Amino acid sequence: MKKFKLIAMLLLAATFAFAQEDETDGSTLEQPIRKPVETVWEQVNIGEFAEPIAYPPVRQADVMYYWTIWRTIDLREKINHPLYFPTEVRGTWRSLGQTIFDAIDIGNTERTEGVLPVYSDEMCTYPYSREEIQGLISNVSTIAEIDEEGEEIGTKELIIQFEPKEIISYNVKEVWYFDKQYSTFRVQILEIEPIIEYEKPNNNSSYYDDENQEDAEDVKANMIKKRVGYIYYNELRPFLAKQEVFNVKNQAARVSFDDLITWKRDFSSLIYKESNVYDRDISDYIANSRDQRIESERITDKMRTFEHDLWEF
After folding, report:
1. What is the pTM of this model?
2. What letter would DSSP give residue 221?
3. What pLDDT digit, counting tens, does each position of 199-249 carry?
4. 144, CA 20 to 30 Å: which among 25, 175, 212, 282?
């Protein structure tokens, strides 16, 4: 009798396990029929076991100095190309923008669990609703409605959803601090803000000629930047740790986005703001772009000099 009870319990447990595997989380992301065929050996997806490495613990009493820095990561710079490419999903290879879009699961407005929240403020305290997020990554334009005879009978709205490849930069807020407990000068990213850039249709100019300077300036002025919203970096890290990034030196040395951005900091950026009593950007008090870069480098040197002066030789 006990054996029958044991067998029944095992069958019940197995049934429950299979039911758990069959359950879906409501995601609208397309599921492949097999693992991507990328190598001659069986490729293990790092997302199956990767977790973000925890930051070293820090206490407020141990922080003797800290400074807040805002910087821009421009994906058009060559060193930042591993964050931008590929522009389309290729097997397990995705861009940073695609990873963020997949984490948000923007195609499903009803899903609320297991998705990456997006916030409306820099302090990451007020999250957007799913409908608001859908509006942030979409552009509404008005087009003419034509009948069969070719006459305009009215207008209608056309909703165009932005693609990850249209994210051309990221604004990053980070804190640099000196921890006396470990005698180290450290940095942690607080939040990241994707910036989409797209071209607004211009009714005054129907073509663009490289030799026509007026048209060139007109097209440049038509480029619009749109903020997607603020993302709390600690909530983004679990998704970054599960996504492998292209290693330009050796593809066999597998690196995730979390490794590249959080620990290696293998990217180029430009500081556009530091903590100040006026809470203003560098561009608010320096108009010239060349002088803005010089000011950015001055802030960088200030942080480097502070760390250097901590030690005596």
Report:
1. 0.80
2. H
3. 875 544 333 344 444 444 455 557 888 999 999 999 999 999 999 999 888
4. 212
